[in-house]
Amino acid sequence: MEIMQVQDELVVTRRVDGLKSMSLRVLVDQKGARNVAVDTVGAHPGNWVFTISGSAARHALDDNSILTDLTIGGIIDHWDDGGKKTEGSKDEAGRDQTDAQRSAGSPKAA
Known about the structure:
Elements lengths: L1 E9 L12 E6 L5 E6 L8 E6 L1 H5 L10 E6 L2 E4 L2 E4 L9 H8 L6
Parallel strand pairs: 3-5
Antiparallel strand pairs: 1-2, 1-4, 2-3, 4-5, 6-7
């Protein structure tokens, strides 16, 4: 697992059948490299997330037939990064993104 930050939603008009209608997000890792992950938790740009990679990424989904090797496992509210407390991102109203997502309902599919 690795901690990454959501940079943006990835919108695609054509995709392989193995991705079905899964939501996709562009993530940035600690070194600045971009990655694409399947998003089942409704992460928004700016959210810090933890990812599940490799063959375990597929097993993290309800449907094991989805073709992925990187899945967002959860949205991070806060963590202690070596004595430096890091907070998850807030929306315009100052609420935690996770609170805003709970009230918004299910995430949209790409």
